Amino acid sequence: MAKIVILTGAGISVESGIRTFRASDGLWEDHRIEDVATPEGFESDPDLVHQFYNARRAAARAAQPNAAHSALAALEADSTHEVLIITQNVDDLHERAGSTRVVHMHGSLFGALCHACGHRWPAPQTMARTDACPECGAQASRPDIVWFGEMPYRMEEIVRGLEAADLFVSIGTSGNVYPAAGFVQEARAAGIETLELNLEPSAGTRMFTEARHGPATKIVPEWVAQISG
Question: What region holds the Deacetylase sirtuin-type domain (predicted)?
Fold first, then answer.
């Protein structure tokens, strides 16, 4: 059974109507990254941050999985492959497409986190800074999102998956955000075959054994069909 570790980024969800994280002007949905995606931004204006993620949460709920998400779910269902998806995305489109082995290294829009005690719970559709933590009662709720300056989730599990893989595939990522951008280097150092599937060459394209470029809804299903026979 071939073990395949797949890293997905914003590019796989674009065709579902979810905008990429960082636009060419350095803004995310017309906001400065520093204002809505850092602990300092949250401390400075928690109301703005909650409003921002409430809107992202609503957009993610309205979006539907596309052909690329469905193809990866079909690959997982193929008993000849063992698939682990590591996603930088905070939507739930992989799960809604049918994938079950998904690691959200940057958290999820659908999770809430207590800034005071660390307790986690499912996020309501609309969050506010006055929401009380169901565990400690503190009014310190925040989205369970990994912001800049914070450590991505489940890194030990991710490293173990990479070390045991036969193939590492990167889909829809820019290759600019670490530590995910370094996964291809770790895979190559371990002698693992690597493949990039992206709309255009990423910052790390040269490090991949093979690279295929085009819309995710086209090249991901084609690749899955190829390796599934």
Answer: 1-229
| Three-state helix/strand/coil letters over 102-126 | EEECCEEEEEEEECCCCCEEECCCC
Sheet with 210-213, strands from edge to edge, namely 102-104, 81-87, 2-8, 167-171, 193-198, 210-213
CA distance 214 to 94: 20
Q: Is 88 labeled as ligand-binding?
A: yes
Domain range enclosing 190:
1-18+65-106+152-229
Asked if residue 57 belongs to a known ligand binding site, the reply is no
Instruction: Tell me if residue 106 is catalytic.
Output: yes
Tens of pLDDT, residues 157-208: 999 999 999 999 999 998 777 787 789 988 988 899 999 999 999 888 899 9
Same domain for 128 and 219, yes or no, is: no
Measured CA to CA, the distance from residue 49 to residue 22 in angstroms comes to 16
* Cα angle for residues 191, 94, 125 (degrees, 5° grid): 135
Beta carbons of 213 and 199 less than 8 angstroms apart: yes
Q: CATH number for the domain including 119? A: 3.30.1600.10
CATH number of the domain within which 1 lies: 3.40.50.1220
Pick the catalytic residue from 69, 94, 104, 106: 106
Global pTM reads 0.93
Q: Is 209 annotated as a binding residue?
A: no
